[in-house]
Specification:
Strand order of the largest sheet: 3-2-1-6-5-4
Number of helices: 2
Oligomer: single chain
Number of strands: 6
Order of helices and strands: HEEEEEEH
Radius of gyration: 13 Å
């Protein structure tokens, strides 16, 4: 796993590696709006996880997930605040995002 200095550096490099879809969290799945596709926890894998903290604001932490789905032949990224999940996210989804490969 490569180390990145900034969130934007990681996003740009991972996009070059085929992680081009943008995911968002919904209650029991992650959603790719571009493809109008919902992925439930059993349909995707967390390939890598990267954490970033802004030096100007130590309370501002982000987490970047590199996600793939062989079932849907799709790779993409999910950016979220570190340790904070959508209030409506199910336990199953939170557990999946907490897994580490």
């Amino acid at each position: 796993m490569r180390t990145y200095t900034t969130l934007s550096e990681a996003i740009n490099d991972l996009a070059k590696k085929g992680y081009t879809a943008n995911f968002n969290i919904e209650n029991d799945c992650i959603v790719c709006a571009e493809n109008m596709l919902q992925l439930h926890p059993e349909e995707f894998e967390i390939d890598d996880v990267y954490r970033f903290q802004e030096m100007s604001d130590l309370d501002n932490e982000s987490i970047l997930y590199a996600i793939s789905s062989s079932q849907h032949q799709l790779k993409g990224l999910l950016v979220n605040a570190y340790g904070i999940y959508s209030e409506t996210a199910t336990t199953e989804l939170i557990e999946k995002l907490s897994e580490r490969k």
